[in-house]
Each structure stands twice: as C-alpha cells, then as structure tokens.
Amino acid sequence: MNYRDSLAWLFGTQSFGIKLGLENTQRLLEACGRPQDHLRFLHVAGTNGKGSICVMMDSVLRAAGHRTALYTSPHLVDFRERVRVDGQMIPESSTAEGLTLLRDASEGWEQAPTFFELATVLAAWWFAREEAEFVVWETGMGGRLDATNAVMPLVSVIMPVGLDHQAWLGETITLIAAEKAGIIKPGVPVISAPQADEVRAVLEAKAVEVGVQIGFVSAPWETGPVGLAGAHQRWNAAVALAALRAAGVEVGEEAVRSGLAKVKWPGRFQRAGAALVVDGAHNPPATAVLVATWREVFGHVKARLVFGVLSDKDASALLHLLRTIADEVCLVPVAGARGTSVDELRPIAEAAGFPAVYTSTLEEVLAKERQDSTPVLVTGSLFLVGEVLALLEGAPKPVASAQ
C-alpha cells in the first residue's frame, strides 16, 4: 500500500470500534519480530496530564542527548503526530510500510485488530527500527487492557485519575483507578501524581499486590521556567522528573532546565493567535485546570468562548465551569458522528447561565478573531482543537479517531 491507501485502510478499521484487551496487540507484536524486546519504555496512564508529562520527559531526555521515541494520542491534525523519534514524525513511507506489514499479518483474523492496536504496534515497530534509546509510551484510555500494556517498562507512571470514558472503564472513580492501576507490574517502580484519597488507596493496594513501592509526588518543580502554561504544569514537571529518576535514567540539571523550558504541546492552552487560545479539555478536572490557567494568564478578562463537545462528555459540567470565565458562548459542531449538535448544546448552555448563546462555524470564528482583540478560547474537545489548527495551517480537515 502507498501512504494514502495505508491510512485509508487504518481509519477504516474504526468500524471495529474500541476493544479492550491485549491478545491482538501481542499477536501483532509477534508478527513484527517482538520489537518491544529491544526497547526501554516509560509507561504513562491517568485521566489528565498524560500528554504533558510525556512531552516533558521526551524533551528532557533529548536535551540530555538521548535518542527518544514518543507515542501519544490522539493526533490533532496529522496521524503521524502520534509516532515520533527525536521530535520528528514517522515518515509517510515508513507509515505505509509498517501498516502494510500489519495488514498482511492480520488478514483473515476472526477478531480484526482495532485502529489503536494497529497504531500502537506500528509505533513499537518503527521505534525499534530507529534504535530509540528510550520510549515515552502513553496509554490510550485505560491501562490494564490498553494495547500499550503489552510491554514491560522501566517505570509506570499514574497521572491524576478522574471520571472519563466511563462506558469502557467503569462508572466510579475507584473502578477507573483500578483500570489505570493495571499498568503497575512486578519489579517495576511506580510514580504517581497527587491523587484523591480513594484513588490513592486503589493504587497503593495494587502496588502491595504486585510487591512494588509507589512514590507520590508531594511538591511542584520550582527551579526554572516551564514551556507550558499553568501552575499545574509544575506538578507535571515534578512527576516527569521523579519518573526519570525511578527509571534509573541519568539526566543532568542543565538538561532538566533546558528540556522543561523548551517543551511544547499543541492544543493545551496553546496561544494559536494574538487573541486565540485553544485547549482540548474535555472533562471536568481538565476544564477546572483550564479555568485556573485562564485566570493566571488573563486575570479578570473574560473569554469569548467557542465550545464544541463529543456526545459522551458531560457538556453541562464543562459549561458550568467555563461560565466563570466567559459571559458568552459560541456553539460549534465537532466533525464526525460522535459530536453533539449545536441544537442539543443550546439548552445546556442556557441552563449553565450564559447571557449570550449563539452558533457559528469555525471559519467565521477565526475570521472574527483576526479583527478583534478580545481573547477567544476554543475548548471542549481535542478533535475541535485539531480542526482549528488545521484551518490555521491551511491543512486538510483532520480525520478523527476514537482514541
């Protein structure tokens, strides 16, 4: 397959839905020659902050001179954003080659592999071929049955756990924490961000069960600047550095300072224009952090809110939180079948207390932003952020994926 055909095939597998479990991933890894056996993984799970800590570890490792691999999800504009070595996306030719290998290996399987299983194994295959020293490895959704859990890491990292993806992970925070804790393995050190008491109890019990120590970060990193906005990013930096130490990775103070100062992560309180901020917060804990960061940066200045959300998210809770920093909301659709329509969102926004609720297209929003100095905040979905960034870059509209 060429690159275009390989992506069409990969995105076509989304019709198989989301399937939690490791069997397909393990079979695909075997077909690729067990690339995971040649790699050293830093495995990260949690509800919020996974991507931020992953790019922090990657940036610090690169500043220290290591050849790094980074696997994250979802992508914003280009599928290849998910799979990087030394900051560079996997080439189109390698994407086509790897996906062709996986298609041929899985042809005729009774249980066809899913999009995320294929993307995960593609990443491991390419990272091994590129001889990466360290792989920063982000879970897709859960932990225990997440495709990324088919590897043995140097360290397991648990970021703050909250309610999200309840349809797959469980309706309560303790059930979700138990799924996230599934990346904790015998003989592998564990580092955790601060957690709610009930989550901490679940993580500690899992650590005792498998016979490992778990360390909880107790203070933010304050030694220098962090390239990502918000006080919470200093806590993320502290977790990243604790994870590197637990993994036995040597990085000097200069590399730490340089790596954290230079770190970038699109779609997370990203200043995408003179008066435009885009943030992919899509659950209440992430939105609460977004609100706090807005106040840190803009003080009492209100946002012109642009909001779109997927149908499985708590739009009411998000809009009630955002109402504290915005008096008006422009509702926009999120592309794809999973988006909540603006007609459904309007009464939710009105119930959240917005004095002004209106609808528009992203194109109209961006055109107005260029003529107005009032700060605009686009949030509610990473897929919506991807659409904004694609429009700003003049790129084709991104094809969304479930994970």
Short description, anyone?
With 403 residues, this protein is α/β, with parallel strands linked by helices. 41% of the residues lie in helices and 14% in strands. The chain has helices at 3-12, 23-31, 50-63, 92-106, 115-129, 166-169, 173-180, 197-210, 232-246, 253-262, 284-298, 315-322, 342-351, 362-369, 382-393, and strands spanning 41-45, 68-71, 83-85, 88-89, 134-138, 155-158, 190-192, 214-216, 270-273, 276-279, 303-307, 326-331, 356-359, 376-379.
Question: How would you characterize the overall build of this protein?
Answer:
This protein is an alpha/beta fold and 403 residues long. Helices cover 41% and strands 14% of the residues. It contains 15 helices and 14 strands. It has helices at residues 3-12, 23-31, 50-63, 92-106, 115-129, 166-169, 173-180, 197-210, 232-246, 253-262, 284-298, 315-322, 342-351, 362-369, 382-393, and strands at residues 41-45, 68-71, 83-85, 88-89, 134-138, 155-158, 190-192, 214-216, 270-273, 276-279, 303-307, 326-331, 356-359, 376-379. An 8-stranded mixed β-sheet has the order 4-3-2-5-1-6-7-8, sandwiched between helices. Helix 4 (92-106) crosses helix 5, helix 7 runs parallel beside helix 8 (197-210) and helix 11 (284-298) runs parallel beside helix 12. The protein is globular, with a radius of gyration of 21 Å. The two termini are 23 Å apart. The model has no long low-confidence stretch (mean pLDDT 93).
